[in-house]
Amino acid sequence: MSSWITVCGLDDIEQEGARRFDHEGRTYAVFRSPDDEVFCTDGLCTHEAVHLADGLVMDYEVECPKHAGAFDYRTGAAKRLPPCVNLKTYPAKVESGAVLIAISQ
């Protein structure tokens, strides 16, 4: 079962930006796309466990700050080596200016 959790306000994430969100011992990365959609993935790169919210976000990709591997944050797909394992993604939405994500309990 999933429950929606408020992360922050939409304006707290720049367009083509990311924000770290920690909840119940897990860490997530929440992204704001160029067209103001929001997306959520696991927070750590699948290659070296570096937080992706610290990476460069351009268009619909996030670049890992350690080895420049890249992921499509909409799907979690690993797009550029060294990561070869995809990220897990979570539903995300904006309601009344707040960013919410759905995390399985």
TrEMBL record:
GO terms for molecular function: 2 iron, 2 sulfur cluster binding; dioxygenase activity; metal ion binding. Residues 5-101 form the Rieske domain. It comes from the Bacteria. Keywords: 2Fe-2S, Dioxygenase, Iron, Iron-sulfur, Metal-binding, Oxidoreductase. The keyword S-adenosyl-L-methionine does not apply. Pfam families: Rieske. Signal peptide: none annotated. PANTHER family: 3-PHENYLPROPIONATE_CINNAMIC ACID DIOXYGENASE FERREDOXIN SUBUNIT (PTHR21496:SF23), FERREDOXIN-RELATED (PTHR21496). This is 3-phenylpropionate/trans-cinnamate dioxygenase ferredoxin subunit.
